[in-house]
Amino acid sequence: MAKGNELDLNIFDIKYKQIPPKAGRVIIAQPSLTDPFFKKTVIYLIEHDPNGSMGFIINRKLNISLKDIITDFPDINVNVSVGGPVSPETLNFLHTFGDKIPNSMPLGNGLFMNGDINVLKALALAGKVNSQNLRIFIGYSGWGPNQLNDELNEKSWVVVNFPQMDIMKGVYDSWYFAVQQLGEKFKVWTILPDNPNLN
Hints:
The chain has about 200 residues and is α+β, with helices and mostly antiparallel strands. A hairpin with a 2-residue loop joins strand 6 and strand 7. The N and C termini lie close together (about 10 Å). The chain is globular and about 50 Å long. The chain has a single domain, classed as VC0467-like, CATH 3.40.1740.
């Protein structure tokens, strides 16, 4: 039994060259994170400063269309995802249209957040919107001051620096694939049972 516990601890404590969280980076849930909402999630960070952190879960796609949640919106093929448990009544979007959508917030590297929804609708009607340049999130994930840092110290997350445009392309929309990008020794995470202590 002791040996089994030691093995579990080592699996959860695989060393990764940890980098600090900041806007534009991604956090990947470690197997030790058992919170039902965040278990096996991949989150793109939008903000991280002394006031707290904000991000969107990128691997929780919903099987719904944008027109199902925005009245009179054209039927376009874009990814709609659960962004997190905070403000589930709100809708946020990432895009690559820049100043073409007024009031957009620049995130760097050609990515922008939100903006005038009516202009987005006009772009969609003109056939200029697709799954490569727009991602929709219902709700978001949020942390208070120092909360995310505390969770990192508890080994709940690994911070990685994936290319931001790959976020738009959906490259890391699988927790299993994202973990595999950490290196060969991390692949053991992908074959662990949901609750290793029951094994």
